Amino acid sequence: MNFRLGLIALLGCLAARDAQALIEHRVEKTFPARAGTVLAVELFNGAINVTAADSDTLEAEVLEQCDVATEKEATPWYADLVLGLDQQGNRVVINASYKQKMSPTWKNWPPVLLVLNLKVPRNCELDLYTRDGGITVGNLQGRLKLRNETGKIFTGEIDGSISVQSFGGDVALTACTGPVEVSTTTGAILVGRAFGPTRLASAGGAIEVQRAAGGVSTNGNGSEIKVRFTHPVTSPSDLVTSGGSITAIFDRRSGVDLDAQASVLGKVTVRNLTLPTVGASDTSRRSHLAEKLNGGGPVVSMHASGGNILLLGEDPMPGEEVVPAAAAGTPAEKKGEAPPGSGAVGGSR
Description:
This protein is mainly β.
Protein backbone atom coordinates (compact mmCIF):
# COMPACT_ATOMS: atom_id res chain seq x y z
CA MET A 1 0.00 0.00 0.00
CA ASN A 2 2.81 2.40 0.97
CA PHE A 3 4.66 1.51 -2.23
CA ARG A 4 1.60 2.38 -4.31
CA LEU A 5 1.13 5.70 -2.54
CA GLY A 6 4.79 6.52 -3.03
CA LEU A 7 4.59 5.66 -6.74
CA ILE A 8 1.52 7.85 -7.19
CA ALA A 9 3.25 10.74 -5.43
CA LEU A 10 6.36 10.34 -7.61
CA LEU A 11 4.31 10.32 -10.81
CA GLY A 12 2.45 13.41 -9.60
CA CYS A 13 5.73 15.25 -8.99
CA LEU A 14 7.03 14.29 -12.43
CA ALA A 15 3.80 15.47 -14.08
CA ALA A 16 3.94 18.77 -12.21
CA ARG A 17 7.56 19.26 -13.21
CA ASP A 18 6.80 18.55 -16.87
CA ALA A 19 3.76 20.87 -16.79
CA GLN A 20 6.07 23.72 -15.75
CA ALA A 21 8.81 22.83 -18.25
CA LEU A 22 8.19 25.28 -21.08
CA ILE A 23 10.65 27.60 -22.82
CA GLU A 24 8.98 30.38 -24.81
CA HIS A 25 10.37 32.71 -27.47
CA ARG A 26 8.46 35.71 -28.79
CA VAL A 27 8.76 37.17 -32.31
CA GLU A 28 6.95 40.41 -33.15
CA LYS A 29 6.67 42.36 -36.38
CA THR A 30 4.50 45.25 -37.60
CA PHE A 31 3.66 45.82 -41.26
CA PRO A 32 2.15 48.90 -42.92
CA ALA A 33 -1.34 47.99 -44.12
CA ARG A 34 -4.50 49.48 -45.50
CA ALA A 35 -8.06 48.45 -46.23
CA GLY A 36 -8.07 45.38 -48.45
CA THR A 37 -4.73 44.03 -47.26
CA VAL A 38 -4.31 40.31 -47.98
CA LEU A 39 -2.92 38.13 -45.17
CA ALA A 40 -1.72 34.62 -46.02
CA VAL A 41 -0.66 32.26 -43.22
CA GLU A 42 0.60 28.67 -43.36
CA LEU A 43 1.74 26.94 -40.15
CA PHE A 44 2.89 23.39 -39.46
CA ASN A 45 0.98 23.58 -36.16
CA GLY A 46 -0.42 26.00 -33.63
CA ALA A 47 -3.39 28.25 -33.00
CA ILE A 48 -4.18 31.37 -35.05
CA ASN A 49 -6.02 34.25 -33.35
CA VAL A 50 -7.13 37.29 -35.36
CA THR A 51 -8.63 40.54 -34.08
CA ALA A 52 -9.54 43.60 -36.16
CA ALA A 53 -8.86 47.25 -35.42
CA ASP A 54 -9.31 50.63 -37.12
CA SER A 55 -5.61 50.83 -37.93
CA ASP A 56 -3.17 51.30 -40.81
CA THR A 57 -0.87 48.56 -39.55
CA LEU A 58 -0.89 44.77 -39.28
CA GLU A 59 0.68 43.44 -36.10
CA ALA A 60 1.97 39.87 -35.81
CA GLU A 61 3.09 38.13 -32.63
CA VAL A 62 4.48 34.59 -32.80
CA LEU A 63 4.89 32.63 -29.59
CA GLU A 64 7.31 29.72 -29.99
CA GLN A 65 6.90 27.24 -27.15
CA CYS A 66 9.27 24.33 -26.53
CA ASP A 67 8.37 21.63 -24.03
CA VAL A 68 11.74 21.39 -22.26
CA ALA A 69 13.13 22.61 -18.93
CA THR A 70 16.06 24.79 -19.99
CA GLU A 71 17.08 27.17 -22.76
CA LYS A 72 20.05 24.92 -23.53
CA GLU A 73 17.72 21.97 -24.22
CA ALA A 74 15.49 24.16 -26.39
CA THR A 75 18.26 25.53 -28.64
CA PRO A 76 18.60 22.53 -31.02
CA TRP A 77 14.82 22.24 -31.34
CA TYR A 78 14.41 25.92 -32.19
CA ALA A 79 17.20 25.55 -34.77
CA ASP A 80 14.91 23.30 -36.86
CA LEU A 81 12.10 25.88 -36.91
CA VAL A 82 11.87 27.92 -40.12
CA LEU A 83 9.78 31.08 -39.65
CA GLY A 84 9.08 33.73 -42.27
CA LEU A 85 7.27 37.06 -41.89
CA ASP A 86 7.35 39.02 -45.15
CA GLN A 87 5.42 41.65 -47.09
CA GLN A 88 4.99 41.85 -50.84
CA GLY A 89 3.10 45.01 -51.72
CA ASN A 90 -0.38 44.75 -50.21
CA ARG A 91 0.15 41.09 -49.28
CA VAL A 92 1.57 39.92 -45.94
CA VAL A 93 2.86 36.34 -45.83
CA ILE A 94 3.58 34.42 -42.63
CA ASN A 95 4.74 30.83 -42.80
CA ALA A 96 6.33 28.36 -40.42
CA SER A 97 7.70 24.90 -41.11
CA TYR A 98 9.66 22.36 -39.10
CA LYS A 99 12.42 20.14 -40.45
CA GLN A 100 11.32 16.53 -40.45
CA LYS A 101 13.71 14.96 -37.97
CA MET A 102 12.05 12.32 -35.84
CA SER A 103 13.41 11.69 -32.37
CA PRO A 104 12.48 8.95 -29.85
CA THR A 105 10.34 10.77 -27.28
CA TRP A 106 7.14 10.26 -25.33
CA LYS A 107 6.19 13.90 -25.81
CA ASN A 108 4.29 15.46 -28.69
CA TRP A 109 6.08 15.87 -32.00
CA PRO A 110 7.32 18.30 -33.13
CA PRO A 111 8.50 19.65 -29.77
CA VAL A 112 7.90 23.28 -30.81
CA LEU A 113 4.34 24.60 -30.61
CA LEU A 114 3.30 27.92 -32.13
CA VAL A 115 0.66 30.49 -31.23
CA LEU A 116 0.10 33.24 -33.79
CA ASN A 117 -1.70 36.39 -32.61
CA LEU A 118 -2.66 38.92 -35.28
CA LYS A 119 -4.18 42.39 -35.22
CA VAL A 120 -5.34 43.37 -38.71
CA PRO A 121 -7.16 46.30 -40.37
CA ARG A 122 -10.91 45.91 -40.08
CA ASN A 123 -11.21 45.52 -43.86
CA CYS A 124 -8.86 42.63 -44.64
CA GLU A 125 -8.73 39.45 -46.71
CA LEU A 126 -7.57 36.34 -44.84
CA ASP A 127 -6.15 33.05 -46.16
CA LEU A 128 -5.23 31.03 -43.05
CA TYR A 129 -3.99 27.45 -42.72
CA THR A 130 -2.68 25.53 -39.74
CA ARG A 131 -2.21 21.78 -39.81
CA ASP A 132 -2.94 21.20 -36.14
CA GLY A 133 -4.55 24.05 -34.22
CA GLY A 134 -7.64 26.18 -33.79
CA ILE A 135 -8.48 29.33 -35.75
CA THR A 136 -10.35 32.27 -34.19
CA VAL A 137 -11.33 35.38 -36.17
CA GLY A 138 -13.12 38.39 -34.70
CA ASN A 139 -15.53 40.78 -36.40
CA LEU A 140 -14.20 42.12 -39.71
CA GLN A 141 -14.98 42.93 -43.34
CA GLY A 142 -13.55 40.93 -46.22
CA ARG A 143 -13.13 37.45 -47.64
CA LEU A 144 -12.09 34.61 -45.32
CA LYS A 145 -10.52 31.31 -46.34
CA LEU A 146 -9.82 29.17 -43.26
CA ARG A 147 -8.35 25.65 -43.28
CA ASN A 148 -6.98 23.17 -40.75
CA GLU A 149 -6.68 19.44 -40.11
CA THR A 150 -7.65 19.41 -36.42
CA GLY A 151 -8.83 22.12 -34.06
CA LYS A 152 -11.92 24.28 -33.75
CA ILE A 153 -12.67 27.17 -36.11
CA PHE A 154 -14.67 30.20 -34.93
CA THR A 155 -15.55 33.53 -36.54
CA GLY A 156 -17.36 36.58 -35.26
CA GLU A 157 -19.58 38.76 -37.45
CA ILE A 158 -18.17 38.84 -40.99
CA ASP A 159 -19.24 41.40 -43.58
CA GLY A 160 -18.02 39.45 -46.59
CA SER A 161 -17.67 35.77 -47.46
CA ILE A 162 -16.41 32.71 -45.58
CA SER A 163 -14.88 29.47 -46.89
CA VAL A 164 -13.89 26.82 -44.33
CA GLN A 165 -12.33 23.36 -44.68
CA SER A 166 -11.53 21.19 -41.67
CA PHE A 167 -10.79 17.50 -41.34
CA GLY A 168 -11.63 16.88 -37.69
CA GLY A 169 -12.55 20.20 -36.13
CA ASP A 170 -15.88 21.76 -35.21
CA VAL A 171 -16.84 25.00 -36.99
CA ALA A 172 -18.90 27.87 -35.49
CA LEU A 173 -19.70 31.03 -37.46
CA THR A 174 -21.55 33.86 -35.70
CA ALA A 175 -22.87 35.72 -38.77
CA CYS A 176 -22.00 36.42 -42.40
CA THR A 177 -23.52 38.82 -44.94
CA GLY A 178 -22.18 37.00 -48.00
CA PRO A 179 -21.67 33.45 -49.26
CA VAL A 180 -20.71 30.76 -46.75
CA GLU A 181 -19.16 27.41 -47.64
CA VAL A 182 -18.10 24.94 -44.93
CA SER A 183 -16.84 21.39 -45.28
CA THR A 184 -15.74 19.07 -42.47
CA THR A 185 -14.99 15.36 -42.34
CA THR A 186 -16.00 14.59 -38.76
CA GLY A 187 -16.71 17.95 -37.13
CA ALA A 188 -19.98 19.69 -36.34
CA ILE A 189 -21.08 22.91 -38.07
CA LEU A 190 -22.98 25.75 -36.40
CA VAL A 191 -23.98 28.94 -38.23
CA GLY A 192 -25.66 31.66 -36.22
CA ARG A 193 -27.07 34.05 -38.86
CA ALA A 194 -26.70 33.46 -42.60
CA PHE A 195 -27.59 36.38 -44.88
CA GLY A 196 -26.26 34.90 -48.12
CA PRO A 197 -26.03 31.55 -49.94
CA THR A 198 -24.90 28.90 -47.44
CA ARG A 199 -23.44 25.50 -48.37
CA LEU A 200 -22.59 23.12 -45.53
CA ALA A 201 -21.23 19.56 -45.66
CA SER A 202 -20.17 17.14 -42.92
CA ALA A 203 -19.48 13.42 -42.88
CA GLY A 204 -20.47 12.80 -39.29
CA GLY A 205 -21.02 16.02 -37.38
CA ALA A 206 -24.31 17.79 -36.71
CA ILE A 207 -25.24 20.74 -38.95
CA GLU A 208 -27.27 23.66 -37.58
CA VAL A 209 -28.26 27.06 -38.99
CA GLN A 210 -29.97 29.23 -36.40
CA ARG A 211 -31.27 31.98 -38.72
CA ALA A 212 -31.49 32.03 -42.52
CA ALA A 213 -33.91 33.50 -45.05
CA GLY A 214 -33.17 30.71 -47.52
CA GLY A 215 -30.36 29.73 -49.82
CA VAL A 216 -29.24 26.92 -47.51
CA SER A 217 -27.74 23.74 -48.97
CA THR A 218 -26.64 20.89 -46.71
CA ASN A 219 -25.01 17.55 -47.41
CA GLY A 220 -24.70 15.32 -44.37
CA ASN A 221 -23.52 11.75 -43.97
CA GLY A 222 -24.69 10.49 -40.59
CA SER A 223 -25.47 14.10 -39.70
CA GLU A 224 -28.45 15.55 -37.86
CA ILE A 225 -29.60 18.74 -39.61
CA LYS A 226 -31.50 21.65 -38.07
CA VAL A 227 -32.38 24.88 -39.89
CA ARG A 228 -34.53 27.78 -38.73
CA PHE A 229 -35.91 29.92 -41.55
CA THR A 230 -36.69 33.57 -40.88
CA HIS A 231 -39.64 35.45 -42.39
CA PRO A 232 -39.93 35.94 -45.28
CA VAL A 233 -38.17 33.03 -46.94
CA THR A 234 -36.57 34.61 -50.02
CA SER A 235 -34.78 31.80 -51.87
CA PRO A 236 -34.89 27.99 -52.29
CA SER A 237 -33.08 25.58 -49.97
CA ASP A 238 -32.00 21.96 -50.29
CA LEU A 239 -31.43 19.96 -47.11
CA VAL A 240 -29.98 16.47 -47.59
CA THR A 241 -28.61 13.94 -45.13
CA SER A 242 -27.89 10.23 -45.22
CA GLY A 243 -28.26 8.33 -41.97
CA GLY A 244 -29.64 11.30 -40.04
CA SER A 245 -32.81 13.30 -39.47
CA ILE A 246 -33.86 16.83 -40.44
CA THR A 247 -35.64 19.50 -38.41
CA ALA A 248 -36.88 22.55 -40.36
CA ILE A 249 -38.43 25.44 -38.43
CA PHE A 250 -40.63 28.04 -40.12
CA ASP A 251 -42.27 31.29 -39.12
CA ARG A 252 -45.99 30.57 -39.42
CA ARG A 253 -46.41 33.66 -41.65
CA SER A 254 -43.97 32.45 -44.32
CA GLY A 255 -44.94 31.16 -47.74
CA VAL A 256 -42.94 28.20 -49.05
CA ASP A 257 -43.31 25.07 -51.15
CA LEU A 258 -42.44 22.10 -48.94
CA ASP A 259 -41.05 18.88 -50.39
CA ALA A 260 -40.03 16.49 -47.60
CA GLN A 261 -38.87 12.92 -48.25
CA ALA A 262 -37.94 10.73 -45.28
CA SER A 263 -36.56 7.20 -45.46
CA VAL A 264 -38.87 4.31 -46.29
CA LEU A 265 -39.16 3.39 -42.62
CA GLY A 266 -39.04 7.00 -41.46
CA LYS A 267 -41.77 9.61 -41.24
CA VAL A 268 -42.51 13.26 -41.89
CA THR A 269 -44.06 14.95 -38.87
CA VAL A 270 -45.80 18.36 -38.88
CA ARG A 271 -46.21 20.43 -35.72
CA ASN A 272 -47.81 23.86 -35.36
CA LEU A 273 -48.08 24.44 -39.12
CA THR A 274 -51.35 24.72 -41.03
CA LEU A 275 -51.14 23.06 -44.44
CA PRO A 276 -53.97 22.51 -46.96
CA THR A 277 -54.29 18.77 -46.38
CA VAL A 278 -52.68 18.51 -42.97
CA GLY A 279 -53.90 19.71 -39.60
CA ALA A 280 -51.90 22.07 -37.41
CA SER A 281 -50.29 19.00 -35.87
CA ASP A 282 -49.99 15.76 -37.76
CA THR A 283 -48.25 12.57 -36.64
CA SER A 284 -49.46 10.17 -39.34
CA ARG A 285 -46.83 7.78 -40.63
CA ARG A 286 -46.11 9.27 -44.04
CA SER A 287 -42.63 9.23 -45.54
CA HIS A 288 -43.27 11.93 -48.14
CA LEU A 289 -45.04 15.27 -47.97
CA ALA A 290 -45.44 17.93 -50.68
CA GLU A 291 -47.46 20.95 -49.54
CA LYS A 292 -47.73 24.71 -49.93
CA LEU A 293 -47.43 26.76 -46.76
CA ASN A 294 -49.46 30.00 -46.94
CA GLY A 295 -49.95 29.72 -50.70
CA GLY A 296 -46.42 28.66 -51.47
CA GLY A 297 -43.16 30.37 -52.30
CA PRO A 298 -39.50 29.33 -52.63
CA VAL A 299 -39.02 25.56 -52.59
CA VAL A 300 -37.57 24.02 -49.45
CA SER A 301 -36.55 20.49 -50.36
CA MET A 302 -35.64 17.97 -47.64
CA HIS A 303 -34.33 14.44 -48.12
CA ALA A 304 -33.41 12.28 -45.12
CA SER A 305 -32.17 8.88 -46.23
CA GLY A 306 -32.25 6.73 -43.13
CA GLY A 307 -33.96 9.27 -40.88
CA ASN A 308 -37.09 11.29 -40.08
CA ILE A 309 -38.16 14.86 -40.92
CA LEU A 310 -39.82 17.29 -38.50
CA LEU A 311 -41.54 20.41 -39.87
CA LEU A 312 -42.09 22.83 -37.01
CA GLY A 313 -43.96 26.13 -37.01
CA GLU A 314 -43.37 28.99 -34.59
CA ASP A 315 -44.97 32.36 -33.95
CA PRO A 316 -42.87 35.50 -34.47
CA MET A 317 -41.19 36.89 -31.39
CA PRO A 318 -42.61 40.19 -30.09
CA GLY A 319 -41.02 43.05 -32.03
CA GLU A 320 -39.26 40.69 -34.44
CA GLU A 321 -38.30 42.59 -37.57
CA VAL A 322 -38.39 41.25 -41.10
CA VAL A 323 -34.83 41.24 -42.51
CA PRO A 324 -34.36 40.31 -46.17
CA ALA A 325 -31.38 38.07 -46.88
CA ALA A 326 -29.85 40.55 -49.33
CA ALA A 327 -30.13 43.61 -47.09
CA ALA A 328 -27.05 45.79 -47.09
CA GLY A 329 -24.79 46.30 -44.10
CA THR A 330 -23.27 44.02 -41.51
CA PRO A 331 -25.43 41.67 -39.45
CA ALA A 332 -24.76 43.74 -36.34
CA GLU A 333 -26.43 46.74 -37.95
CA LYS A 334 -29.76 44.93 -38.13
CA LYS A 335 -32.08 45.84 -35.30
CA GLY A 336 -32.28 43.18 -32.63
CA GLU A 337 -29.00 41.46 -33.50
CA ALA A 338 -26.12 40.89 -31.11
CA PRO A 339 -23.63 43.79 -30.96
CA PRO A 340 -20.14 43.39 -32.40
CA GLY A 341 -17.72 41.80 -30.00
CA SER A 342 -20.35 39.72 -28.24
CA GLY A 343 -18.37 36.63 -29.34
CA ALA A 344 -21.38 34.34 -29.18
CA VAL A 345 -23.38 32.52 -31.76
CA GLY A 346 -27.07 33.38 -31.46
CA GLY A 347 -29.06 30.86 -29.46
CA SER A 348 -31.64 28.53 -30.88
CA ARG A 349 -35.24 29.07 -30.15
